[in-house]
Amino acid sequence: MPALSKIFCLLFLMSSTLFSASELSWDTTIVEIEMEPDQEEVRASFTVTNKGDQAVRVARIQTSCGCTGSVVDRKIIEPGASTEIIGVFNKGKRQGLNRNRLEVFLDSEPQPVATLQMNVQIPTLIEAMPQIVYWNRQSSRSSRKINLTLDKRYIDEIVAVDYDRKRLTVTQEAGDPTGKIARVLVIEPKNYEETYRGTVTVRGIGPDGRKAEARVHTFVQP
After folding, report:
1. CB distance 50 to 19 below 8 Å
2. What is the residue extent of each domain of the chain?
3. Residue 109 to residue 106: CA distance in whole angstroms
4. What is the mean pLDDT of residues 97-102?
5. Rounded distance, CA 61 to CA 104, Å?
6. Is the pLDDT of residue 6 over 50?
7. Angstrom distance (rounded) from CA 184 to CA 98
8. CATH says 26-122 is which class?
9. Predicted model pTM
10. What are the tens digits of pLDDT across the range 53-73?
11. What angle do CA 202, 206, 212 make, to 5 degrees?
């Protein structure tokens, strides 16, 4: 009997949690944001309404990344009332698509009642692929090619390619006919027998004078 009582108690708690979650209505649980190049922070708004007949309290919000924080307008949500949860994303040195989760917990409930998604796209103004090239005893002694792609909303011209001319040979080739690849860099060390670690820096400029750069790291390990 004690074991059976524990089972009934557990089922009751689970049903209570599910009931609380079902009584909360969200305007959205997924927000897609594209940052501007100069932005360091963006915010996403999620509004939740209590459709139940009892007040609930937001106990905490757990985020999937240290780059994301949260602000709650009102933690106690009365029946029929709404509150706003704001996700705050800090860019730092991140690039590309960043997927962030915010798990919302109510008082006395071990499981989140909702998982909010904040997907932030950070534009890569000049993309170099690959970003690392290397030569060692196992690799071929031949040139490596780097595809350069521009986000033409912000950068439309490559103006310089800087590198150690004593140690590397770098030439440029035209991109593909579609314009997706703006330029191809062909990189080769002048001496495969000397250890080298350096950087090729690609600099670009946009129609409004905006500047950007991308780096390719090069390694020679005889």
Report:
1. no
2. 26-122, 126-220
3. 6
4. 97
5. 5
6. no
7. 27
8. mainly beta
9. 0.77
10. 999 999 999 999 999 999 999
11. 35
